[in-house]
Structure formats: C-alpha cells, structure tokens
Design goal:
By secondary structure, the protein is an alpha/beta fold. It contains 25 helices and 25 strands. It has a domain of 192 residues: Response regulator (Rossmann fold), CATH 3.40.50. Strand 6 and strand 7 form a beta hairpin.
Length: 706
C-alpha cells in the first residue's frame, strides 16, 4: 500500500495496482483481498490504493505505474448504494471506512477512479470491475439521477470491464499481458466487456441477430436462424456426384446436429436496442432488460452488443462457475484476516461484522427481481468443500484476535443453498429460466440439505468452538423440503432470532418479486415453532419486508400491515425499495412494464402488463409508515391515508384497529385534533415499541436492515 512497503519487498514496480473505494481488509469476504491474493499466488506483484483522494490524480500515482494494468473497483458495495439511502439522502456513515467515516469515496467511484488513473498514467491499461461495474455494463436506469445512463465503459474510458466474479478472467488477462499481448487485442475472455466499432465481429464465422426492436413473440430476441434443411450439404454433394444410380445420403446424427447448433450459438451476438433507444423509449428498455436476463446462463448465453453513439459495447458471455476445488484454493490463500496495519486502532464496521464468519458458497438461483446477486454472481451455486470450511474455522480460531468461540455465520448470499444444484448438468446448461424456485421449485433442482446438516455438525464439533450461528438470510421455501435441516438449525444454530425474507404477503406484489406465496412462510413458521418447542427454546422469526416495491398498491401495503399486526410483528427498521441498476424490478419501476412477460408493440399500440410504480415521496412514506404502523410518529399520516382509502374503520382504540384515535403529545408533528389528543384511560402515553422480549436476559433486539 505504500512505497515503503514496496522497498521492503525489493520491488521497483507493481505488476498490478488495485484501486478500491473500501478500506483494505485482507480477508476473503473483501473482493480486493480475493483478487490481490490470487494474483500474488500466480507470481504477480500486487499493490493496493485504498480510498484515494479522487479530487486530483496525485494519489493514484503513489505506487507508480503498474507494469500490466490498474484494476479499478468501487469496493464491496455500489458507491451510490453505499452513499445514499432509498430516499436519496446521503448516509451519515460508511461501514467500509475506518471508524465509519462518511464521504471517503465519490459518487460513481468506478468512473471517477478510472479517469484519475488515466490522468496519472495516460499509457497504462485500465480495467474496471466489481459490483458497480457489473451492474452498469450496459445502458441502465440510474435512480439517483432519474434517467437512463450509458454503460460505465465509455464514461470510465477503461480498456476492459470484467463483470461477475472476476477470478478466471483476471488471472488469464494478467498472464496474457505479461506475455506481451496488447489489451486492445484480447477479445475472447468470457466475463469481459469492451468497446468496438459497430461492424466489428470476432471472425467471419460470426453472425449477428438484431433484437433492437421489440419482438412480437417476446420469448426470444428474434429468430435464431432460418431453419433450413439440415441435410442440405449432404444432398448437394450427392447430386454433384450422382450418375445413373442414386447415391446413398448419410443423415447427420443427433450428436452432430447438436454440436453444430452449439457452435453456431457460440458464434452469435445479439444486438440490443441502442443506448439512445432505451433512453427515449421505456418499452425498448424493458425489452432490452428481458433479453439481457435471458442471456445470463453461462451454459447457453450468447454475446451481446449495444450501440453507444459511434461505438458498441460488446459483452462476452458470462464466465463459467468455479469448481469446488478452485473455490477451496481461492479461500485458503494466505490472508492476514485483518485490516491493513496502517489503520492502527481504527474500527472498520464491515470488518467487525464479518470477522468471525465464514463464506461457504456463492451465487443464488432465487432470481428475486429486486436483488443484484444473480446479475453479479450468477444462478449456479458454487460451494466449498466441507474440509475447506472446517480448516478456515480452525484458522480463524487460531489467528483472529478476539475469537471467543462464536462463529457468527456459515453462509453466503443465501444460508441454505449450499451444494444445491440441478440434477443434470445438460439440463442446467440448456436452461433459460430466470429462477429455479419461482413460480414453484423446479423438479430438476435438488433440495437435499443433508450436506449442509453434515457441515453444521462438523463445524460445531471443532475444538474451541462454542456456538455456530447462521446469520445469512434463509430461503424458507427450500428449507421446508428438508424438515431435518430445520430441526438441526433451530436446535443448535439460532441465537434467539432468525431472519427470513417473505418480503410481502400479496400475490400481485410477490409475482413482481418472483417470491413464493406467504403459505410457504406459514409452513416454515409451523416447523420452526415446533422444533423450537421440542428443543426447549424460545425463539422468534425476524421477517424482512419491502415497502414501495413495483406492483405494490396502497391496499397491498395495508394488507401487509394488517398481517404484521395480526402476527404481532413490530418492525424497528424497514427497507424501502431501492432501484439498483439492471435489476428486473428496476426495469419495472422505470418503464411500468413487466419484463417477466411478453412485450409487444402492435400497430403502434403498446401491449403488455402495466406495473404500478411507487414514485412520489409521499406515497413511499405512506408505504413505509404502513410497515411501522405501531410508531406514533406515523399515526397522523396513516389516519389521513386510511380515510382517503375509505378504511376509517381501522382507526380506533380496539385490537381490530390499525392505529388509535389518540396521539401522544410531542409525536407525529401534529396532533390528531379534537378528542384524539390524549390517550384513553389505561393506554400508555407513547407508542409501544420493539419486538417480543427474548427469554435470555429479556433484552429486545432491533430488526436490522439488509
């Protein structure tokens, strides 16, 4: 991280310099550490520029010019999500900065950092990556500026963009550059994007499918090809040699036909609607989003291209997932498992949160439309071996200061997708579904939680480990397929509270989220309560729900609030829908169309399902207030809303009412007026707060936002 450290190592220059918006924590939960240690293991000298001063180029020159390239990221989080709330208000802290200090990174950090690297060393190669670059690799709706923005590539002026998990591409890129190849000539790496002239193709064998117009069929971006006679070549050859007797024609075998089709698909690029088109036409934006997501399976995805002015952004297909052995090696590199010593005694909140947790898998096949995991990590689950996870727990026990025997989490994007995979690799490679669990769990998807139960048992048997908790979110519709897993979980791995995410109760909203119906939650709750009683433990579920999601009407939010009240849930913190770039729910928010269904433009008329988008600040506040119906600050707004909805019957002082008539003094900004100023006899003077009390210690735990 400094010239002094380079001198101590005897380095005159770095091969690769990684620039990040986060503090540098050498732990496998941080992307910079994963990439840095992996490149180091390949023999490269790696420097890290952490949270540079972006106002000038000086800080980007602190380690000199890299021999190979700058690798630029915003950090573990998108910089706009990191800096702003769902209400577009700037956050007061930053969990990835020493002592949580805010404003240590710029807006759209990838773009700014890449430009500064170019200013510092005009001749250096610049490669951008991480979640921020992944989610902005094509033209995308930007919630913070409320407009469609270009791909990050032309704005950052980078040579190459690496999307998704970058390990395969970054290692091959480094080796090829070290052998003397020019970065502008490396065009065949999967998981990369770059700028090309409009007519450019990798070779004469490639063909382009124009999907810039909304397809009348909707399920695919135009026809793959005219279905000619598959035996035409053989027939022509036979005719050329035919004399008096007919010559026999050898029919192609199925394997030969499939091989030819696979080659053709691998040499096909789909042209998305241009940036200028999706900027000006919401229907084309929804169509581009649908097409993009249909080309996300690395087993069958085709290349994509999108015009930006006089050039195209070209996206190669996504990278294949890492094998278990590869993932093990990656997570067992020699991490210090601590922040860089240059930070001294400063606390880095994100590090404090994960320092005693272990990542056991990657990816998510849930396909929730509001989530960015699948756009970045993919739908194919990549799992570590049981032995590798146990070795990391032992290393954490032996090397991480402050370890008290509590493992805070064994998880990943989803706690219980470990080792779950399609029953057939060929089916998986051909699949075009956006979710393996919606509308129902695919019959080809394995749901056996046995390997995860085995891992839990081994983990808690490690010497020196007193407790293993599960902190990652749980997919309850999968868990109910393995009751033995739920028994194991609630008997040994729940610290009083378990977080799960039903997100909503109403089918109209859940269908826009691609989430299961609330009946699956109810089934899980029955098993959770039953096994908790059998274990002699008082434990509770913490539900995550989302306010103001596309498709959510005021009535839907009211029904959700009534469900929360019926189940005695009083949420201390709630999540308002935040449209992140490239997510399907974001396309719904921006276009008010549903890209999960066919999109058409017939005779100048737009045909397609309209999705209600919650845009106004007031309506977003109303939806959030419904989820915190118990908070007296929200009662005046809820009374006003309920009256406008014709539901004044829910205003009163009985158990069947959602909000009371009375208003505690000093709350709500204003009193309800008339006789509703003071509480009725026997009522407390302020709103009840919190959740049910935990048996151990009787301390109330607040709901944490994701």
């Amino acid at each position: 991280m400094s010239r002094g450290e380079m001198a101590a190592l005897g380095w005159d220059a770095c091969d690769v310099i990684l620039v990040t918006g986060d503090a540098y924590v050498d732990h496998p939960s941080f992307g910079m550490a994963l990439i840095g240690r992996l490149l180091e293991a390949q023999g490269f000298r790696v420097g890290v520029i952490s949270q540079p001063d972006w106002r000038t180029a000086a800080d980007f020159a602190r380690l000199g010019q890299p021999n190979l390239f700058f690798g630029v990221t915003a950090g573990n989080m998108d910089s706009m999500v990191n800096r702003y709330t769902a209400d577009r208000k700037i956050r007061s802290d930053d969990a990835y900065t020493p002592n949580g200090e805010a404003n240590r990174r710029p807006d759209r950090a990838v773009t700014v950092y890449a430009q500064r690297c170019r200013e510092a060393f005009p001749g250096a190669a610049v490669v951008i990556g991480s979640i921020e670059a992944s989610l902005r690799r094509i033209a995308h709706y930007d919630y913070w500026s409320d407009k469609v923005r270009r791909s990050v590539l032309p704005d950052a002026k980078a040579d190459l963009l690496i999307f998704g998990n970058a390990e395969r591409a970054i290692v091959e890129l480094a080796h090829r550059l070290s052998r003397g190849e020019k970065i502008g000539e490396i065009r065949d790496l999967r998981g990369t994007a770059f700028m090309v002239p409009p007519g450019w193709l990798p070779s004469v064998d490639w063909r382009e499918i124009d999907a810039s117009e909304v397809d009348s069929e909707g399920d695919a971006p135009g026809p793959l090809a005219a279905r000619g006679n598959p035996y035409a070549a053989e027939a022509a050859a036979a005719c050329a040699t035919q004399t008096t007797a007919a010559q026999p024609i050898r029919l192609l075998t199925r394997a030969e036909r499939l091989a030819g089709r696979d080659r053709q698909r691998a040499q096909t690029v789909i042209r998305l609607p241009a940036y200028e088109q999706v900027r000006d036409d919401p229907l084309r934006y929804a169509h581009a989003s649908r097409t993009f997501h249909l080309e996300s399976n690395p087993g069958n995805a085709r290349a994509l291209r999108q015009r930006h002015g006089q050039r195209d952004v070209w996206l190669n297909p996504p990278p294949p997932p890492l094998s278990t052995e590869e993932l093990d090696r990656l997570y067992e590199l020699p991490y210090a498992r601590a922040p860089h010593p240059g930070y001294g005694e400063a606390k880095i909140p994100a590090w404090e949160m994960i320092r005693f947790s272990v990542n056991i898998m990657r990816g998510c096949f849930g396909g929730c439309t509001f989530c960015s995991i699948t756009e970045h990590e993919g739908r194919i689950i990549q799992s570590r071996s049981e032995d590798s996870v146990i070795r990391e727990i032992e290393e954490m026990r032996d090397k991480t200061p402050g370890f008290t025997g509590i493992v805070s989490d064994l998880g990943g994007p989803t706690a219980n997708m470990y080792r779950l995979q399609c029953r057939d690799e060929k089916i998986e490679a051909a699949c075009r579904r956006l979710s393996c669990v919606y509308p129902d769990i695919c019959p080809n998807m394995g749901t056996d939680h046995g390997p995860l139960v085995s891992l839990y048992r081994r983990a808690r048997a490690v010497k020196g480990v007193r407790k293993v908790l599960i902190g990652s979110g749980l997919r309850y519709d999968l868990a109910v397929r393995s009751p033995e897993y739920i028994r194991e979980l609630v008997s040994h791995h729940v610290g009083g509270y378990l977080k799960i995410a039903p997100e909503h109760t109403e089918a109209a909203v859940l269908s826009k989220m691609m989430k299961p119906g609330i009946a699956a939650y109810e089934r899980f709750k029955q098993l959770f309560d039953r096994f908790s009683r059998e274990a002699g433990k008082e434990q509770y579920l913490i539900p995550y729900v989302i306010a103001a999601h596309p498709g959510a009407s005021d009535e839907a939010m009211l029904n959700l609030a009534l469900w929360l009240k019926k189940n005695n849930f009083r949420l201390d913190q709630v999540q308002t829908f935040l449209p992140t770039p490239m997510a399907l729910a974001t396309a719904m928010y921006h276009t008010e169309k549903n890209p999960l269904k066919k999109l058409r433009r017939d005779g100048g008329e737009v045909d397609g399902e309209r999705v209600e988008a919650v845009r106004s600040g007031r309506q977003r506040k109303v939806h959030k207030a419904f989820l915190r119906y118990h908070d007296a600050e929200n009662w005046p707004l809820l009374r006003e809303t309920l009256k406008a909805m014709g539901r004044a019957d829910l205003i009163g002082n009985g158990k069947k009412h959602l909000v009371p008539l009375w208003q505690p003094a000093g709350t709500g900004g204003k009193t309800a007026g008339g006789p509703g100023i003071a509480p009725p006899p026997g009522k407390p003077g302020r709103a009840a707060s919190g959740f049910r009390q935990a048996a151990a210690g009787g301390r109330r735990k607040a709901f944490a936002s994701r």
